[in-house]
Amino acid sequence: MVTCATCGHDNPADASFCNACGSALTALSEREERKIVSVLFADLVGFTSRSENLDPEDVRALLTPYWEHLRNELERYGGTVEKFIGDAVMALFGAPIAHEDDPERAVRAALAIRDWVRMSGEDLQVRIAVNTGEVLVLLGARPAQGEGMAAGDVVNTASRLQSAAPVNGVIVGEATFHATRETIDYRAAEPVLAKGKTKPLPVWEALGARSRATVETPSAAPLVGRTQELDLLVGALERTRSEAKPQLVTIVGVPGIGKSRLVTELFAAADIQPEWITWRRGRSLPYGEGVSFWALGEIAKAETGVLESDSTPDAEAKLAASLERLLEDEAERTWLSDHLRPLLGLAGVAPRAQDQSEKFSAWRRFLEAIALLRPTVLVFEDMHWADDDLVDFVDELADWLVDVPLLVVCTTRPELLERRPGWGGGKPNALTVSLGPLSDAETARVVAATLDQAPLSAELHEALLERAAGNPLYAEQYARAIAEGSGGLNDLPDTVHGLIAARLDLLPAAEKSLLQDAAVLGRTFWPEAIAAIAEDDIGAIEVLLRALGRKEFVRRDRRSSVAGETEYAFAHALVRDVAYQQIPRVLRAEKHVRAAAWIEALSPDRAGDRADLLAHHYRAAIDLRAAAGLDTADLVERARAACFEAGTRAASLNANKSAVRHYTAALDLMDLLPPDSGDRQEVLLAREEAAAGVLASGDTARDRDPGG
Ligand SMILES: Nc1ncnc2c1ncn2[C@@H]1O[C@H](COP(=O)(O)OP(=O)(O)OP(=O)(O)O)[C@@H](O)[C@H]1O
Ligand SMILES: [Mg+2]
Q1: CB under 8 Å to 245, separation ≥6 — which residues?
Q2: Residue 165: its pLDDT value, please?
Q3: What's the pLDDT tens digit per position in 32-70?
Q4: Of 646, 548, 552, nearest to 596 (Cα)?
Q5: Residue whose CA is closest, atom 31 of ligand 1?
Q6: Tell me: the pLDDT tens digits for 436-453?
Q7: 3-state secondary structure string, 22-76?
Q8: Does domain 227-434 have CATH number 3.40.50.300?
C-alpha cells in the first residue's frame, strides 16, 4: 500500500497517482516538504481587450516578450515562476530553495515589475499581490512541464488579493508586511473581503523599497560581552599599524551571532583617530549570479567616490583623480585604470584586462597604494556568499603584500571553512576569531535592552533565554515579537524561521534529510536511531554527522543517555524545530513509528527513560495520523503500554505529577481500545496513588518530567 503524502489516502501498491486527490505517488513522500514561502501573483490588465480580435498565434507573439521580461525580473530576485495562467503569472519565493529574506525579495520583484509597467509607455497595466505563509512543496516538480509546486491556503489567498490590488499597485498580506516593513515603505489599505474567508483580510500597499544603506542602522542596544574578541581585533589593528605588516583576520560564526556587530565595534574603536585610518567595506550578496567581485567593487567605488548614479564621464573623472592621488607613475595609472573599470561598472575593457592573474596583481597594487598612503582596514563582509574568484583573491591578499599597514577583516558563516578547509590556515599573519553563543546572563542583557519596558515574567524570561540559546539576533527578534504582542514563544518569528530555513536549504540533500530525521528524535539523538529511521547505513550517517558538526548544526555530547550510543545534539533548538516542521505530516508520523521501533528494540537497561521516549513517539504518531484522518489502531495499544510503564517509572522516582500525567494519557488511550482490552482498574488505582503522592509531598521541585 502507498500512502499519499498530500492527502493521506491509502492506494494500491502499484498506483502511480493518488486515487483520492490525483497527486503523483512515485517516491514522492521523500520529495515533499513543508515550507514558508512568499507567493506573488501579477496580472497584466488590458491584454484581454486587445487580444479580442486577434488570432491565437498573434496573441502569443504579443505576450511572449512580456512573459520573458516578467520571468527575468522574478528570477533576478531569486523567485521561481510556477505558472502563467492567461494574463497572470504566479511565482514562488522560498521554494524550492529558501533564502533568508524571501518576503523582501518578493516585494522588491513586485515593485520592479510595477515600475517597469509604469515606465513602459505602452497601454499596459498590472495588479500585483504578495502573500506569505506555509505550503506543501513538491521538491522535484518541473514547473516548466506544468507541474504545480506548491499547495496551501496562502496560494489561493494571494490570488484573491491580487484581484483586489489597485491598478499599477502592489498589495501584501499581513505576514508579508510584518516580515518586510523595515525595508519597504507601506501604507495601510482597505481590508479585502475574499471569497471563502470569514473575516476581511488586512492588507498594505507597498510604495517603494528603501535603499540598503539606510536599512542597516546599527542596533541601539549596547554591546554585551565579546571583550576578548574585540581586544584581539584591536590588537591586530595596532600591530598592523605599528609594524606596517599586512594581516588577515577572519570572524567566523553562525547567522546572527554578532560578526558584523564586532566589525562595527572595531570601527568605533578605530574611529577615535579617524584621520589615521582608511576604512573600506564591501559585502558579498546572496544573489550570486552576475556579481562576481561585487564586494571588491564596493570597496573600489568607495575609494574612488564613484556612485551608481554617476554618468560615465563623471565616473571616469573620479577614477582618474583618485589614481592621481595614489600613484605617481602615469603608465602605472593607465594600467590600473584599465583593470579597475570593470569593478566600477565602466565599459570598454582592454583585452588584456581579461587575464585573471594580471587583473589580480593590478587590484593588489591598487589596495597597496591605498594602504601606503595611510593604514587601511578592508572589511569583506559575508564571505560565505563570495564567488570562488573573490575568495582566492582575498585569501592571497595578505600573502602577496609585504610591509604595508593593511588589515583585512573577513566575516563569514562556517560554510566558507567547509568550502575552503585551508582558509587562512597556517599563515603567520592570519588570525581566526570564532564567535560562540553568549552566556545566559549576556543574552538576558540583550533582551532587556531590546524590550525597553517592564521585565518579563520569570517563566517567560527563562523560556526566551532557552530558545535564543545565546544567539543575540534570535534574542532580539523574540523580545521584539513579545514586546509588540505579535507572538508567543511558540511562534517562531518569521525572520528567524527564514534565516534557519535558508541555511537548511543550502545543505546537500542527504545532510538536510538527516537533520529532519534527527529532528523527529528530538533535541538529542543517536546515529543508530537515525540509521533506523532513514533505513540507511550507519557508516554513511556518521560521515554526514561529522560534516554537520563542522558546519555547527550539531555537536557531539560527551555523555549519552543511551548506553553504548554516541549522542549528538542540535547546536540550536530552533534548527531542530524548523527541520521538524518541514516534514510532511504523514511522513512525520511514519518516522515517529520507526523511532519507537528502534527504542523498543533496545534492551531495557540501555535507556533509563525508554518508556517515556516510547510514549512520546507513539503519541506523536497517533496525533499526526489522526490529524490526517488516517487509521491509528495498530499504535494505540503500544502507546498505552508505554504510557503505563512511564507512569510506573515516574511513580517509583516520586515524580508523582508526571506519573499522574502518564496514567491519564494511558486512560485516554484505553478509550480508543475495545472495552475488554487491558485492566482499566489497575491504571485508575495507580493514578489515585500518584495523585495522593502529589498532595502529600506538596513538593514539586523533584517532580521534573524526565520525558520533557
Ligand atoms: N555582543 C552583542 N551585544 C549586543 N547585541 C549584539 C551582540 N552581538 C550581536 N548583537 C546584535 O545581534 C544582531 C545580529 O548581529 P550581527 O548582524 O552582527 O550578526 P551576524 O553574525 O553578522 O549575522 P549574519 O551572518 O546574518 O551576517 C544585531 O542586531 C546586533 O546588533
Ligand atoms: Mg553580518
Answers
A1: 239, 402, 403, 404, 405, 429
A2: 93
A3: 889 999 999 999 876 666 667 777 787 777 778 888 888
A4: 646
A5: 219
A6: 999 999 999 888 888 876
A7: CCECCCHHHHEEEEEEEEEEEEEECHHHHCCCCCHHHHHHHHHHHHHHHHHHHHH
A8: yes
Cα→Cα distances 579→364, 505, 513, 594, Å: 43, 10, 9, 18
Q: Describe the chain by its helix, strand, coil percentages, rounded to 5.
A: 55, 15, 30
602-637 residue pLDDT tens: 876 665 678 888 888 999 999 999 988 888 888 998
Q: For atom 27 of ligand 1, which residue has the closest CA? A: 255
- For residues 10-24, one letter each, b for 16 or more C-beta atoms within 10 angstroms of the residue's C-beta and e for the rest, the string is ebeeeeeebeeeebb
For the chain, count helices (H), then strands (E): 27, 18
Instruction: Tell me the residues surrounding ligand 2 (ion) with CB < 5 Å.
Output: 260
Q: How far is it, in rounded angstroms, from Cα 185 to Cα 177?
A: 10
Q: 322-346: per-residue pLDDT in tens?
A: 999 898 888 888 888 888 888 887 8
Query: Which amino acid, residue 39?
Result: V
Taking the C-alpha atoms of residue 406 and residue 429, their distance in angstroms, rounded to an integer, is 11
The best mutation among 260, 409, 440 to test binding of ligand 1, ranked by most ligand atoms within 8 Å of the C-beta, falls on 260
498 lines ligand 1 (CB under 6 A): no
Q: What percent of the chain has pLDDT over 70?
A: 85
Residues in the chain: 708
Taking the C-alpha atoms of residue 574 and residue 437, their distance in angstroms, rounded to an integer, is 14
Domain ranges of the chain: 35-214, 227-434, 448-491, 499-697
Closest Cα partner for 571 from 259, 257, 286? 257
Instruction: Name which of 573, 688, 672 is nearest 631 in CA terms.
Output: 672
Q: What is the pLDDT of residues 539-562, one digit of tens each?
A: 999 999 999 988 888 988 877 777
Concatenate the DSSP letters of all residues of 118-132 into one string: HHS-SS-EEEEEEEE
Q: Is 225 in the pocket of ligand 1 (CB under 6 A)?
A: yes
Mean pLDDT, rounded, of the chain: 83
Pairing of strands 247-252, 406-412: parallel
Distance 251 CA to ligand 2 centre (A): 10
- Which atom of ligand 1 lies at the shortest distance from residue 253's CA? 21
Nearest one of 258, 286, 254 to 554, comparing CA atoms: 254
CATH topology classification for 35-214: Alpha-Beta Plaits (3.30.70)
Closest ligand by atom to 473 CA: 1
Give me ligand 2 centre to Cα 650, in Å: 46
What lies within 8 Å, CB to CB, of 543 at 6+ separation is none
